[in-house]
Amino acid sequence: VGMVEQAREVFEQAMKTAERIEDAKERAEELKGIAVEMAEVGIFEKAMKTAEKIEDANERTWALIVIAEEMTKVGMIEKAREVFEQAMRTAERIEVVGERRLALREIAVGMAKAGMVEQAMETAERIENAWHQEWALSEIAEGMAKAGMFEKAKETAERIENAWRRAWALSEIAKEMAKVGMVEQAREVFEQ
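Now predict its structure.
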């Protein structure tokens, strides 16, 4: 039996143990932790099954976000997109407004990194707080720039009203342009 198989077995034991925790909040936090750790070592199917057992919408959302982010890192873009969509549906059930905002912001940024630009923008629009929304837009613009979508990134940055946040986004776009040899265009963006 290989180490990965042994890890799966130990994760399974951890999950079964966590499911027996009586306190609902503690149980949800522990299951989230297990799902996240599974995703971080590439055991995605089990991570998803674990996330599905989390009753708390906030904890489940964060588990799904991390799973999708880890899938994105290893190139499982289509699957990551599905998981981000699931995280978004789950986030809508988070009752505490501040927690929902943070989750939606993280989902929007993750979607942008997975190339889900339109969905990322739609998600950012749903954030009920200008500061969090602009934070998401600035990170979406950065993600677009990293993906070589410079014009779309600049358009996104222009939508940001907060001068500091817009300046940060534009400097990140210019940095990415310079990395790919677009030095003159980067200089123009820096001067905006």
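The chain has a mean pLDDT of 91.
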